[in-house]
Each structure stands twice: as structure tokens, then as C-alpha cells.
Amino acid sequence: MPSELYRKLTALLLQHGCTLVRQGKGDHEIWESPITKKRFTVDKGGTNRHTANSALKSAGIEQKL
Prior knowledge:
The protein is α+β, with helices and mostly antiparallel strands and 65 residues long. The chain has helices spanning 4-15, 49-58; strands at residues 19-23, 28-32, 39-43. It is built from 2 helices and 3 strands; from the N terminus they run H-E-E-E-H.
């Protein structure tokens, strides 16, 4: 079951136009940002804010969780 942090993170990503590209290995997902034009991973089972904020930075979103 996805964590609350994952739900907040994906809501922010979707709000900024990011899209889920595909499922990665294990509980990871590959997302793409229209801001940076980069692909980055999101840990679906992660509970670490540092990792979630790193994904936001990769997406070009300055907001922190």
C-alpha cells in the first residue's frame, strides 16, 4: 500500500504536469517532468522525505514536502 508521503509527492508531480512513464524495478516508478524534460525515479514504498524532495528537485519543482 502506498505511503502518505507517496500520495503527497505524486499529487504535487501531477499538479505540475509530470507524467508516469512506466513501472520500474520493484516498487519504483519512472516519471517525466515537462519543466526539466528529464526522467526520474519515485519510490512507491518510500517513507524518506529527503528522497521525495530529491524527486521534486529532479522534476524542477522548488516546493518541499
